[in-house]
Amino acid sequence: MGADGVRDTVERSDCVILLGPQMSDINLGVYTARIDRSASVYAGEDRVSVGFRSYDGANMKDFVRGLAERPWTKRALPPFVHPRRPAPFAASDRPVTVASLFRQLDAFLDDDMVVIADPGDALFGAEDLYIHDGAHFLAPAYYCSLGFAVPAAVGVAAAAPQLRPLVLVGDGAFQMTGMELSTIARYGMNPIVIVFDNDGYGTERPMLDGAFNDVHRWNFARIPEVLGAGLGIKVATERELADALKQAKANAHSYSLIQVMLDRHDRSPALSRLTARLAERVAKKG
To answer: 31: phi > 0 → left, psi -120 to 50 → alpha, else beta; which?
Structure first.
């Protein structure tokens, strides 16, 4: 699901160090990742595996400390193309697509913003954003964490008030926990919330579609009227989105909610790759 250059660098490495990940179908791209176990080191909470040998009782903290204290000899790294800062986005009157949405967001991000992405295309599309600081991206990888992003913005705003959350969340996920905006309004927090309104659970549709993927339509942009605080804007074109982002950035003393209308079958390349694999499995089981 990730960028080809990053994946190739990891898979061709003669030593891959894995610090605590749960090796699942999600972070292994439905088990399409080619990680050579004989050339990998896995450190968990109470076990370290080197190649095919495991050492019970060795914990991650001690393992990382040992790595840091060892006098390693550095080797020259092979050439690698690093991401570049995005160029300004030229908006038109075309309808917003997932691709153009993320291109605009990429150009919109500032050094003082932290991206908080919900599972689904909000996360998969955000993988290619140019993040100015490695610690300024927060997201869970598991679909059972749906509804994470808006409540997480409360935590980020409380813990790091110097950062402004840019929240990316689908319409279905927002309906689960999005009314935590009430807490955000109460404490005068100022996240910018982008609701991907694609009429339901867009992650599931390409695998197996049906009425179970539909959700009741909300007029998300009018939620500030319910809460008596905040800025709500509904957009359908690139130019409308560009104007809405400017208004949201200027609205520094309250939250902003931008409802972006998207085609229900539009999705990011990363999500398309993942769901194509999962759809094959669903079809076999059917």
So the answer is: left
Q: How far, in Å, CA of 125 to CA of 127, rounded?
A: 5
Go through 145-182 and write b for each residue having 16 or more CB atoms within 10 A of its CB, e for each that does not: ebbbbbbbbbebbeeeeebbbbbbbbbbbbbbbbebbe
- Of residues 217, 147, 225, the one with CA closest to residue 185: 225
Contacts within 8 Å (CB) and 24+ apart, 109-112: 109/166, 110/164, 112/162, 112/163, 112/164
Nearest in space to 77 (alpha carbons), one of 128, 144, 160, 13: 13
Predicted TM-score (pTM) of this structure: 0.77
Averaged pLDDT for residues 93-100: 95
Q: Kindly report the CATH class assigned to 98-273.
A: alpha beta
Mean pLDDT, the chain, whole residue set:
86
- DSSP track, 48-79: EEETTEEEET--HHHHHHHHHHS-PPP-PPPP
CATH code assigned to 4-69: 3.40.50.1220
Tell me the C-alpha distance between 198 and 259, whole Å. Answer: 10
Q: How many helices (H) and strands (E) does the chain have?
A: 10, 10
CA atoms within 13 A on the CB side of 277: 14
pLDDT band at 208 (very low <50, low <70, confident <90, very high): low
| pLDDT tens digits, one per residue of 33-53 | 778 888 889 888 888 999 889
Q: Are 46 and 59 in contact (CB under 8 A)?
A: yes
Domain boundaries of the chain, sorted by first residue: 4-69, 98-273
- Rounded to 5 degrees, what angle do the CA atoms 85, 86, 91 make? 160
In this chain, the answer to whether the domains covering 4-69 and 98-273 adopt an identical fold is yes
